[in-house]
Amino acid sequence: MKPFRIVSICIVLTLLPLSVVAKRIDYAEVHRMPKSIEKDYYIWRFLRQNDTTAEEARKIIREASTLNSKLKKAYKRKTGHYPRIKPVPPKYYYHIKHKWENRIQGNFAFDKGIAMVKRGQLKRAAEYFAASMRIFEEREQKDKALFWLYLVTKENKYLQKLKSSYHINFYTLLAADLTKSKYPDTIVVPKSSVKTLWSIDASSPVDWAKIKERIYTPTTDLDALAEDCESEETIGMHSYIKEYACRYTKSYFPMPYRDMMRHYPVERQALIYAIARQESRFVPAAVSRSFALGMMQLMPFLIDHIAKQQNEKIDYDEIFDPIKAIEYANIHLDYLTKYLYHPLFIAYAYNGGIGFTKRLIRKKSFFRKGKFQPYLSIESVPNLETREYGKKVLTNYVVYLNLLGKTTRLLPFVKTLTDPTMTDRFRR
């Protein structure tokens, strides 16, 4: 693995049983990074350093691709005011922007359909679901509309269309369960006989930013790039590129770090894999727009909290080591599973917080027995990101349980959602 040159490292050994690792972010190194979310993360770290001057802050903030609340606050503490710039995102952002714009348009019609279901106007609901299916471009979103067309019309033709879908998602698995059919055969479990690559540092956010730039460049040979990223350490990058290259007609489900993972119970292995696949596609150096970090996308405040619990001193960049990320995520899951037993609710809490999840499921209108339940609750989670995240993680969980040798179907998990004794401690 090539050395990670973003920061200078000073290790101070003490008489304590732990080592304190302090990292200083260098202005010149940050300046040379490609415009990206990953660079924004290092700009944030640079702004938080005591010796960063106000003048350096004013210069480096102009290179940010986005301004989240962390960047704004760090800049204000250094200069006394919020940044007065309009960030320019990297070029590949516009590809992602189009996808989100289409989802917004399709979801407008879909949400109207859900509102009609709640009013008992099923014919109107079907019209809205049909409209959303025509608007949506992504296969998963179309499958969502198809499933609800089946629910409100009870016409089996919609289940048959879902069964012909190539995509592995919440709705296609349910359609297979309802028709007692096999799950789609488009699942790929990638493996590599190569352990590491000298040309890519899997733990470097900057290397990943450069690869993303190439992925979304129209002239890039994606199959060749995927081959360049094929190793055990970079299996997440490889899978990410292969899925994009085939336009998601195949679904990649990596199962890395088996030496570590096999020490956990099968259900915990499946849960960690399910979350990692949704959070980062198993990219160790992933950084989100809110600076969730690493393969398990842990927020800095949560890293701080767990490190304090464990009596450790940790630099945030250490979370780009996937083994450390799994260790910390597993500790967090130990906490969540004290109160939540169902993978969907655990996923909600991992993404939206346990407080959000507790308030949600204790509402009398959510996850109670009734017509179109629990599907109506699943589609009505107020946080859109958490709503979609939960469905994806639950789907991943079922797939991974099967890949790990535990034959499982999705429908039984859905049926238990209205039974508090099977799902959580908050509703007893």
Strand content: under 5%
Tell me the structural class. Answer: mainly alpha
What is the general shape? globular
Q: Residue ranges: pLDDT <50 for 5 or more in a row?
A: 1-20
Task: Tell me the helix content.
Answer: 40-55%
Largest sheet: 2 strands, antiparallel
Rounded Rg: 23 Å
Strand order of the largest sheet: 1-2
Q: H/E element string?
A: EEHHHHHHHHHEHHHEHHHHHHHHHH
CATH top level of the largest domain is Mainly Alpha
Task: Tell me the count of domains.
Answer: 4
How confident is the prediction overall: mean pLDDT?
94
CATH topology of the largest domain: Lysozyme
How far is the first residue's CA from the last residue's CA? Answer: 51 Å
> How many strands?
4
CATH architecture of the largest domain: Orthogonal Bundle
Number of helices: 22
Features:
two-stranded parallel sheet, two-stranded antiparallel ribbon, 22 helices, mainly alpha, 428 residues, single chain, 54% helix
